[in-house]
Amino acid sequence: MAETMTRDQRLVLWIAVLASFVSFLDGTVVNVALPAIADELGGGLTTQQWVVDAYLVTLGALILVAGSLSDVFGRIRVIVVGLIGFGVTSVAIALAPTAEFLIVTRALQGVAGALLVPSSLALITANFRGPAQARAIGIWTAATTVALIAGPVLGGLSVDFLSWRLVFLINVVPIGVTLWLLAVLRQRDVRRPGAAVDWIGALLCTIGLGGAVFGLIEGQRLGWGSPLIVTTLVVGVLAFAGFIVRQALARDPMMPLSLFRVRNFWTGNVATAFIYAAIALNGLVVVVYLQEGAGLSATVAGLASLPVTILMILLSSRIGALAGKWGPRLFMTTGPLVMAVAAALLLTVNADFDYWWQVLPSMVVFGLGLAITVAPLTAAILGAIDPSRSGIASAINNAVARVAGLIAIAMLAVIVGGALDLRGFHQAAIVTAVLMAIGGIVSFLGIRNPPKETADAPPVVEKSEDI
């Protein structure tokens, strides 16, 4: 790596990795702490849902507008603001006196997190070209995967031996290092002339997601016929419909609808919605049930999914190479179906709990399916779009994945029947398996393998009328 990169490129790559690591780490570390948070601050399952979804609402709503902010104010400035905001809100969450205060600060943390991932990738694409860019993105992906290992383990250790509050302070060190590297870089920021931020679109998207999520989470408690629930659901649906209309009419839309005329792009995003909803549901349910239902410590619960991450690290690059050779369709079909089998294996969990025979087989099969799926899915979606629009295409796909997880977590109480007991755990496993199976079927029916490339021919990119 050092031989092929300049000093500035190495710094840029480290900055991009660490900035994204902060956001990814927070997504994996918080699940382990949910039972301890609910025990101390109260609120039960509803508090646990909101701790996760308050972050995802603002993150999912604003991750698209972050690209526009980078164009208007500069990528480096946006990353700096995101890092400082993430650090400040992390400290505020660690000091939270009530569940309500924690949920509000989690929402503010989601705003900061939305600035980090798209801007980090944009920083890479601005400083690398050709094969070097693909390699840099590959290194970024592999390095940020470490967060999947570090999050549950560090979170579990903090909860068991110190306090759940320290879970949210883990981010402070990588934030400080990243800010220092940005100061060392001294790179001149780049802004796109004439770029504008679609604030109306961002507001409509936030109201749409917020209204829908509030209704789905609180509907179980207040009753689905409650005027408050009906009103928030209707407002949410109407606002999100307004967001879609706005994207069709805006001069600089956050989500260019023309991209969805590309078959592999729209099909891949539909598959992403089902697959990542299942991943979010499975990740939350397993780690919480292992603590509250099976009685495992937070540390052991965090380690329980370690086989998934290990298989991801070992197999992802190899699967990506095979998908490049054979096309993504086979992998995008097979991987989710394998994960559906893994979710079904969790039905073997019973009152006489045994991790090694009841949970570990599911984790191994799930890790295999996830490794088969992720790289081909990303390649199919971004490979279908002209490279000049890969940034917004990546942001859209990231937003789809986050929003899908947000909705799955919002419906958790409905899925498990109000309580995450053994029966609720089995119901969540069934829903996870169904969502994964649908993702595989969508991929089989919709994804098309790109034409074989000759040694000298450039890749063939499927285009819409406006691309």
Automatic annotation (TrEMBL):
GO terms for molecular function: transmembrane transporter activity. Residues 12-451 form the Major facilitator superfamily (MFS) profile domain. It is found in: Cell membrane. It is a multi-pass membrane protein. SUPFAM superfamilies: MFS general substrate transporter. Keywords: Cell membrane, Membrane, Transmembrane, Transmembrane helix, Transport. The chain crosses the membrane at residues 12-38, 50-69, 76-95, 101-124, 136-154, 166-185, 197-217, 223-245, 266-290, 296-317, 329-349, 355-382, 403-420, 426-447. Pfam families: MFS_1. Its main location: membrane. GO terms for cellular component: plasma membrane. This is EmrB/QacA subfamily drug resistance transporter. It comes from Microbacterium immunditiarum. The lineage of its organism: Bacteria, Bacillati, Actinomycetota, Actinomycetes, Micrococcales.
